[in-house]
TrEMBL record:
Pfam families assigned to the protein according to its UniProt record, in alphabetical order: Pur_DNA_glyco
InterPro entries: Formyl_transferase-like_C_sf, MPG, MPG_sf
Key words of the record: DNA damage, DNA repair, Hydrolase
One biological process term in Gene Ontology: base-excision repair
Protein name, per record: DNA-3-methyladenine glycosylase
GO molecular function: alkylbase DNA N-glycosylase activity; DNA binding
Family label: Belongs to the DNA glycosylase MPG family.
Amino acid sequence: MDTLLSSDRSTVEIAQDLLGCVLQKETHSGLVAGWIVDVEAYLGVEDLASHSYGGKRTPRLRAQYSPPGTIYIYQMRGHLLLNIVTGDTQTPQGVMIRAIQPKTGLALINQRRHPITGVDQVNGPGKLTQALGITTED
């Protein structure tokens, strides 16, 4: 991950290179893993879609101003979303992981996402975190 997140690489490059990587989460219930198939890059203070647009700094955004590789989990419309910080501590950029293709732990995904089946279990950022068992404590 260190090479992927090196400081000489743009957030867009990192987002592209995350596609096909395996994302996994182990909980007391078991391991779920999958290939990353959808991401979205957020380009910081100049990106209207970014929480840090305009240089905004709040306690909620503290993780965005953390070193590259920091996991930034936040809640939107009742769903948790997973982001990886890609900028340095003065450049709040990151990549949202939006979807995976399951590789391991399908029974656990089925349990967590029941009665939803197939690709609809993991084809959105909130669905993904629920399938992986990600919580705000992670």
